[in-house]
Write a structure and sequence with these properties.
Length: about 240
């Protein structure tokens, strides 16, 4: 139970939010933002009516590999500056969107940091690795990628490791409390059992592997989105500044 409590506690820290303040009128900034998003997503975005107090709001269509929520509105009634709010499933991803969009909107701005090219990731590597362990898949996608902050990559890896440990532990305890069962240590080490309670091949193997497949399916989809998004930035030749 402690594994799942930790997961519920840590999950809210995985979402990214960034804000850009542009000293221009809302309509001008909105047109440029919309132009950028259409170019990036190949016109796979939609306008959302519920703007939460902002003037405009954009999200990708559900079949698009992109996952963002971008708001454009006035900074205040007394100020003509425009505020852009960026929300993404990853903190690093929101920072990348902020960096690229800010470069697009303010091309004359001087940057102190160097330009960092974004590198390709590969589905044919990620998916098999994810099948073995979602943690390994996350480490592959996050390695040398600005789309994942180091702390975020570690935190997400810990969450999926806890999921696997928690699921296996639950079935090991169930087997341990079954009559004529062997020790918990034997269950975790997948040692042969005379009463068909071995975790690897016994009667609990199928439900255990079925539940273990759930986080792998989740990460298979998430990884597809993450790699497709990152590779699109590479295709367009964008560089990351911080």
């Amino acid at each position: 139970m402690i594994f799942f409590i930790l997961i519920l506690f840590l999950t809210p820290f995985l979402y990214g939010k960034e804000v850009i303040n542009i000293p221009e009128q809302v309509e001008e900034v909105n047109l440029k933002t919309l132009e950028f998003l259409n170019h990036l997503t190949e016109h796979k975005i939609k306008t959302v009516e519920n703007t939460l107090g902002f003037s405009y709001r954009y999200k990708p269509f559900f079949w698009s590999p992109y996952r963002f929520d971008i708001y454009v509105g006035k900074f205040s009634k007394k100020n003509n500056d425009t505020l852009i709010r960026i929300e993404t499933p990853r903190s690093g991803e929101s920072k990348v969107y902020r960096s690229i969009l800010e470069q697009y909107l303010t091309p004359n701005k001087k940057w102190n940091s160097p330009e960092i090219p974004i590198q390709n990731k590969y589905h044919f590597i990620y998916q098999p690795v994810n099948l073995i362990s979602p943690t390994l898949g996350i480490l592959y996608v996050g390695y040398k990628s600005p789309f994942y902050l180091y702390d975020e990559m570690v935190l997400k890896s810990v969450i999926y490791t806890l999921w696997d440990i928690g699921i296996i532990s639950v079935f090991a305890i169930i087997a341990e409390n079954t009559k004529k069962s062997k020790s918990l240590q034997d269950r975790l080490l997948f040692r042969p059992s005379e009463n068909n309670l071995n975790l690897l091949t016994g009667k609990y193997a199928f439900p255990m592997f079925l539940i273990l497949s759930i986080p792998r399916m989740v990460r298979a989809i998430d990884g597809y989105y993450e790699i497709a998004t990152q590779n699109r930035f590479v295709e367009l030749g964008y560089t990351f500044k911080y």
